Amino acid sequence: SRNRRGRSIVKENIALVPLEPQSKVSLCFIDDSLLSPPTVRIIHSGHACNVEEERYTERVYTIREGETLELTCLVTGHPRPQIRWTKTAGSMSDRFQDSSVFNETLHIAKILRTQGGRYYCKAENGLGSPAIKSIRVDVYYLDEPVVTVHQSIGEAKEQFYYERTVFLRCVANSNPPVRYSWHRGREVLTQGSDKGVEIYEPFFTQGETKILKLKNLRPQDYANYSCIASVRNVCGIPDRSVIFTLTNRTASPSIKLLVEDPIVVNPSQTVSLVCITTGGEPPPVLTWGSSNDSLPQRSVVNGGTLTLPAITSEEAGAYSCVASNNVGNPAKKSTTIVVRALKKGRFWITPDPYHNDDNIQIGREVKISCQVEATPPEELTFSWLKNGRALRSSERMVITQTDPDISPGTTNLDIIDLKFTDFGTYTCVAALKGGGIPEISIDVNISSTTVPPNLTVPRGKSPLVAREGDTVELECLVSGKPKPIILWSRADKEAPMPDGSMQMESYDGVLRIVNVSREMTGSYRCQTSQYNGFNVKPREAVVELIVQYPPTVEPVFMEMRQGLGRPVVMTCRVLRAHPSRVLRFEWLLSNRLLHAGAFDAQRDETEYTVRNLNRDGLGEYTCNVINEAGAGKCTFLVTGKAYPPEFYYDTYNPVWQNKPRTYSFKLQWTQMNPNAVDRIVAYRLGFRQMGLERWWVQEIPVDGPINKGELMSHNLTDLIKPESYEVRLTPITRFGEGNSTIRIVRYSAPINPHLREFHCSFEDEPICMFTQDKNDDFDWTRHSAATRDTKYTPNTGPSVDRTGSKQGFYMYIETSRPRKEGDQARLVSPFFNVAPKNPYSISNPPAYCFGFFYHMYGKHIGTLNAFLKQKGQTSSEGPVWSLNGNQGDHWKQAKVSIHPTSSFQVVLEGIRGPGIEGDIAIDDVTLEEGECRDPPTSDSKVLFRSSHIWLLCVTLVMTLLEGQR
């Protein structure tokens, strides 16, 4: 049939003839039906222990900890879908962004147990819903078991003996669940084997621990006990064991700290903590810990001695010595290190506690308070000076060392009935007993000029207008003597200050903000602090800050592709600005002014139109939207460059083997948005052999316009086997070159059914378009000897592929758990067409030779069958070839002639035998025209049945029946 443009539409598989490199591009019109939403399939490689299907078709992939996880996401769909891997596990915190990848293969080397979970592959190309598949990864491991010993001693009433009962508990972390067994010397201990022994699992830790209970210890109970933990060689994980020697001296640990508690030291002093064991059998192991979660980096541990050189205040805290020998509970002793320090000296003046007056007046009372932070606080001492001379407490000068109504570490000096002679400088001196720490002294001046604070905002400083990015200074004028500290905070909302804190201090009343941003617009409160000033009701003021910023516009950048002679409309939209009154706009092309004017206050956008695009109109257009704070910029790149082509991956491209040393490849692609620019007149094709620098370049002419979704193809010939090639395809219009697309072409076996020979060695996905039968019990697995660890199922499966290469791939059936005897796995070939000489009937069906190599090694080998499946066939005939049982550790070839009468497929079926040592492998599947030349093997177990032989058998049976009648 023909489409509306008169081009042929392919309805059946047809022979594709290689074209010479200089030939024109051949077009096959597919229209929008070629555009297809994505589909996803996950395959695996690497050290898989097992891959199994669970309910709801969920796939579970088990792998041993420390090995390499490789998952590959096979997708179809056009345009080529974008791929993303993500993972979710038990908790929200385990969602992994760092492992999200945007390519087909997810590779995790040396996988950890924490990296198990469900992995998702998501593919999307903008058509339909994204395709998502998941696979659950189960990481298997077995840690060394640990034995802990506990004993109970109970006094029997009215009798003179003690009963000692000992419990040996064995614990091992594992996945899958572990099984435990206990041994005494070489004797296997089981429940009931010894009256003095009881073996059980506590109800609350069932499956996690195994307890050996020795009731009323006997002499023979003093022995070597071994706990063996096993996961039954799953994933090839060997059993692990631990030995504990029980003697009459076995005892829990006890320790002693040879230090005081607490230890008070000065900064920079070296501190040594000594811990010794005073009991315990086996000898306990000593460890040190800290209340700060970890020991200081400079600390040194030498056995039971912990040394902290040049200790700092940050390293103060509790330190613990722990002794453990797995008998009873660990012993723990702790001490606290206190590093002496003085810091943060503050003062405040209370003018008159009994009168509502903020001024200092003669005859009234004045209180001076002084506060410091001291470690340890009990060593803190205060002294007072007046004008440099020591001051003692008296009836009018009352000194109080601590004030219970305020913070600790505070001293007060009450001056009662203030006199003129009391004016002067009072000094508060703080020190620690024993010295070694510098004193802190604070001077407070009391005079007739000592006045409470006053706070104002300077004229013209509020509101303060600034531009985004400027450095601004918010200012409050503070008067009074002494001047207090000024505290700044946000007055209009509960928001942090520019440094992230809720409050900032200023000693001069100025708040300096560097690189101010629009989010900092608002009201700021300045208020006096009681510290270093008067203890009176805080004074406060508010400063308004207005941050102006240039207009925010969209689009920031836009590429606009258009053909010559067509109109181009560009629109720049204002989203926000401060001040919001936009002053003007200007349009430029490469810094050349095109149009300018006042911005329409009723609209939030400005527009520029190129009515007839020519070569001079190509380039970068800029729209500046300007207010008092600056300009917002929209940029438009107007180009006639064609969009990149999109390679078509869904159809597996046929490869020709009509020459012994070269191959051909059918390149297929569609054009992204072909009508957006001028007509594409040709494609520039470049290709080079991987690893070489030289490019081969040619032009592929295009006749007529290209429709969206139209499939184009070109045959690459004389490619050298088995090299890979990098291919670059670039569309060309009268504008010039467009954007290029690159892909890698890899050599693989041909799968075109009409070629004289079909050969598949399973070296590449998607395995020559073979598919897994959806109605069987499990799948065939693609593997190479280099990635398959035969230690999991020794004495089974091939150690190399059919050619003897450890890197080569083959297909095999994995018969380990959960497979059971009789389970079937079927691998189905693509359809092959029968091309008779007479197109109207097939009176003499053509012959084909179907061949493959097989490897059937292991004591549990089941059956390998080969079937011929013809199109339209409703009932399944018997196998055309069949073999069962162990055939030895080498590859053998099978050949059988088949005579299909319609389009057909060949099916290879593997049936699981009675055990796990039954892996069957196949490789190098071939299909050739004509009868098989080589005679079939004479092995009596092999059954060859072509349709001719089957018809002959039926004829003979019918003849015999007639003779009996």
TrEMBL record:
Pfam families: I-set, Ig_3, MAM. It is a lipid-anchor; GPI-anchor. GO terms for molecular function: axon guidance receptor activity. One of its GO terms (biological process) is synapse organization. One of its GO terms (cellular component) is neuronal cell body. Transmembrane segments: none annotated. Residues 38-138, 145-230, 253-338, 351-447, 453-544, 551-639 form the Ig-like domain. The keyword Transcription does not apply. Residues 758-934 form the MAM domain. Residues 650-751 form the Fibronectin type-III domain. It is found in: Cell membrane. It comes from the Eukaryota. Keywords: Cell membrane, Disulfide bond, Glycoprotein, GPI-anchor, Immunoglobulin domain, Lipoprotein, Membrane, Repeat, Signal. InterPro entries: Cell_Adh-Cytoskel_Orgn (IPR050958), ConA-like_dom_sf (IPR013320), FN3_dom (IPR003961), FN3_sf (IPR036116), Ig-like_dom (IPR007110), Ig-like_dom_sf (IPR036179), Ig-like_fold (IPR013783), Ig_I-set (IPR013098). The keyword Lipoprotein applies. Gene3D superfamilies: 2.60.120.200, Immunoglobulins. This is MAM domain containing glycosylphosphatidylinositol anchor 2. It comes from Takifugu rubripes (Japanese pufferfish).
